[in-house]
Amino acid sequence: MPKTAKRPRPKIGKAGAKAKAKPKSKTPHPFSFPAKPYRRIHGPQGHSDYVAYKPWLRDEFEFRCVYCLTRERWGPEAHNRFSIDHVKPKSLHQDLTCDYDNLIYACIRCNTLKSTMLGLPDPCKVSLASHLKLNLRSGRFLALTGQGEQLIEYLRLNAQDRVDDRCFHLLIFQSIDPRIRKALPLKFGYPPDLPDLSKLRPPQGNSRPEGVMMSHFARYHRKELPLYY
Ligand SMILES: [Zn+2]
Fold it and tell me: pTM for this structure?
């Protein structure tokens, strides 16, 4: 019997499925909260003025407010519009006023509104994604839980000017105009003044020294940072 030509076997199973799978976008949506609670990578210690921790916190929380996701790059005054929030209010926990693990990075507006309010979720213990979601059409945050409702109400996350600002940035991010897409890094990229944490010397050292090599400054110089995030 004449030999029949071998027909290529159709790809099946895992390999075939992989070949057909759509590549996943590596860039999370800029208006989505981190899927997991923030896990601190820095541990500077010993400052008697908590403001001295600001460069570490900027880097730790990716240069944006943990509560409303407003970014340093969205305003003319960059990080001057941001401040340091105490998870446990300093008026009630004076011993934690300069405890790095009690500090988070927030815009001045959220920080002022939060003030000494208790009971809001700690973004280092629970992902705010489980409490809040943004409606990409309306620019308004939706509450997924009772604590999400509190966040929206207490921090006025859906105040009209905040919604307008969000819609403006959503339009930029979603634009398909190539000229606007070229400019995305200006609004959604990292700030130009990334802090060089390797030069900082906290008075009582750093309990997580390995974090410095994972800082945005170090990653930028290793060409590991995406153009926008
Ligand atoms: Zn904020």
Answer: 0.85
Q: Does some domain include residue 144?
A: yes
Q: How far is the CA of 95 from the centre of ligand 1 (A)?
A: 25
Does some domain include residue 61?
yes
| Residues less than 5 Å from ion ligand 1, measured at CB | 65, 67-68, 70, 107, 110
| Residue that the structure tokens 């009582």 belong to | 204
The SS3 call for residue 105 is strand
User: How many angstroms separate the CA atoms of 27 and 48, rounded?
Assistant: 38
Q: Which class for 103: exposed (0-12), middle (13-18), buried (19 or more C-beta within 10 A)?
A: buried
Number of domains in the chain: 1
Q: From the CA of 54, how far away is ligand 1's center (Å)?
A: 16
Q: Are 30 and 188 in contact (CB under 8 A)?
A: yes
Task: Give the residue numbers spanning the domain of 123.
Answer: 29-188
pLDDT tens digits for 144-170?
A: 999 999 999 999 999 999 999 999 999
